[in-house]
C-alpha cells in the first residue's frame, strides 16, 4: 500500500500484516526529515519494506505499486495491492461496521446522537459511515471535514466509491450529492501543515478532556466541529459525536510546534 511519509493507514496495514504473518511493502511519498519518526518508525519496526518515491512519482502511485506487485509475483509471492488510505469497496466496510458498533454503544447508554463529525482524507471513512447510516437506519447527519483538496473533489470521490461498493456487494442503496455533507474551509495551511489555531486547539482538548488528537486529520476536523458550534449551526439539546480516527503518532514529528 502507499501514503505520505507519516501515513497512519500504511502503518496500520504494516502492523496488521505482521500480526497475520504477511510481508508488507509500503510506498511512501518521500520525506527524508520525517523518515524515522512516528508512523515511519513504527512501520519499519514491524518489518515493513519501505520504498520512498518523489512527489512526482507519487502522482502515478497506482502504476508504481502495480510494478512492485508484478516484481513480487515474479519472485513467487502472491501480492495484494491496497490503494491509498485503504479507500476501496472493501475498506468502506470497516466504517460500516463502526456504525453498527456505535449504535450498539448508544443504545446501551440510551444516548441519541444528532450529528457526527469525522475527518476526510481519502474518503473511505466517510463513505463507510454514510453507507452504515443507511444500512443500520442511523438518523444522525454525517459531517465530513476535508483535510486536503476540496469538498467538491471529495463529493465526486465518495460517490464513486459508494457506487463501486454497491456494485461489489449488490446493495440496494443509491446516493447523490445531496446525501453528502462535506464541510470545506478547514484545510488551513494545507495537507499535513498546521496553523497556530490548530495546535492551540489540540493542546486545549488534551488538557481539558485528556483526548489526544493528531495534527493532520483529527485536529483539523475538531477545529471544524468547534467552529460550526461557535457559528450556532446546532439547536439547543442536540448531541454531537466526534469520531476520533486515531493518528496520534503523527504528533511526534511535529513536537517542536507545541513547546
Ligand atoms: C487518523 C486519520 N483520520 C482520518 C483519516 C481520513 O480517513 P479517509 O482517508 O478514509 O478519508 C485518516 C486517513 O486518511 C487518518 O489517518
Summary tags:
Rossmann fold, 3-stranded parallel beta sheet, 259 residues, single chain, alpha/beta, 45% helix, binds pyridoxal-5'-phosphate, 4-stranded parallel beta sheet, globular
What is the N-to-C succession of helices and strands?
EHEHEHHHEHEHEHHE
Strand order of the largest sheet: 6-5-4-7
Q: Which structural class matches the secondary elements?
A: alpha/beta
Shape: globular
CATH class of the largest domain: Alpha Beta
Q: Please give the number of β-strands.
A: 7
Low-confidence stretches: none
Number of domains: 2
Give the N-to-C terminal Cα separation: 34 Å
Main sheet properties? 4 strands, parallel
Q: What percent of the residues sit in helical stretches (DSSP H or I)?
A: 40-55%
Q: How many helices does DSSP assign? A: 9
Q: What Rg is obtained from the alpha carbons, in whole angstroms?
A: 19 Å
Q: Looking at CATH, which topology of the largest domain would you report? A: Rossmann fold
Provide a compact summary of the structure.
Helix content is 45%, strand content 11%. It is of the alpha/beta class and 259 residues long.
Explain the overall architecture.
- The chain has about 260 residues and is of the alpha/beta class.
- The chain folds into 2 domains: about 80 residues, Rossmann fold (3-Layer(aba) Sandwich), CATH 3.40.50; about 170 residues, Rossmann fold (3-Layer(aba) Sandwich), CATH 3.40.50.
- It contains 9 helices and 7 strands.
- The strands form 2 sheets. The chain has a 4-stranded parallel beta sheet with strand order 6-5-4-7. Strands 1-2-3 form a 3-stranded parallel beta sheet, with helices on both faces.
- Strand 1, helix 1 and strand 2 form a beta-alpha-beta unit.
- Helix 1 runs parallel beside helix 2, helix 5 crosses helix 6 and helix 6 crosses helix 7.
- It is globular, with a radius of gyration of 19 Å.
- It starts with a strand and ends in a 17-residue tail after the last strand.
Amino acid at each position: 500500500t502507499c501514503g505520505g511519509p507519516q501515513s497512519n493507514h500504511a502503518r496500520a496495514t504494516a502492523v496488521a500484516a505482521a500480526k497475520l504473518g504477511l510481508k508488507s511493502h509500503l510506498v511512501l511519498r518521500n520525506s527524508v526529515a520525517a523518515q524515522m519518526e512516528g508512523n515511519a518508525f513504527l512501520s519499519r519496526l514491524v518489518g515493513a519494506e519501505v520504498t520512498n518515491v518523489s512527489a512526482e512519482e507519487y502522482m502515478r502511485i497506482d502504476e508504481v505499486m502495480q510494478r512492485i506487485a508484478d516484481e513480487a509475483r515474479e519472485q513467487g509471492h502472491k501480492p495484494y495491492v491496497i490503494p491509498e488510505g485503504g479507500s476501496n469497496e472493501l475498506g468502506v466496510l470497516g466504517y460500516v461496521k463502526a456504525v453498527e458498533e456505535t449504535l450498539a454503544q448508544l443504545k446501551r447508554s440510551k444516548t441519541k446522537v444528532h450529528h457526527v463529525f469525522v475527518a476526510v482524507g481519502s474518503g473511505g471513512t466517510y463513505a463507510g459511515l454514510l453507507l452504515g447510516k443507511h444500512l443500520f437506519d442511523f438518523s444522525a447527519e454525517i459531517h465530513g471535514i476535508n483535510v486536503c483538496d476540496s469538498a467538491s473533489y471529495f463529493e465526486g470521490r465518495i460517490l464513486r466509491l459508494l457506487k463501486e461498493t454497491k456494485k461489489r456487494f449488490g446493495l440496494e442503496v443509491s446516493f447523490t450529492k445531496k446525501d453528502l455533507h462535506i464541510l470545506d474551509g478547514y484545510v488551513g495551511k494545507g495537507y499535513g501543515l498546521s496553523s497556530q489555531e490548530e495546535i492551540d486547539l489540540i493542546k486545549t482538548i488534551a488538557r481539558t478532556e485528556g483526548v489526544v488528537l493528531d495534527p493532520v486529520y483529527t485536529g483539523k476536523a475538531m477545529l471544524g466541529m468547534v467552529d460550526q458550534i461557535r457559528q450556532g449551526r446546532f439547536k439547543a439539546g442536540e448531541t454531537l459525536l466526534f469520531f476520533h480516527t486515531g493518528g496520534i503518532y503523527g504528533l511526534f514529528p511535529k513536537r517542536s510546534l507545541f513547546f
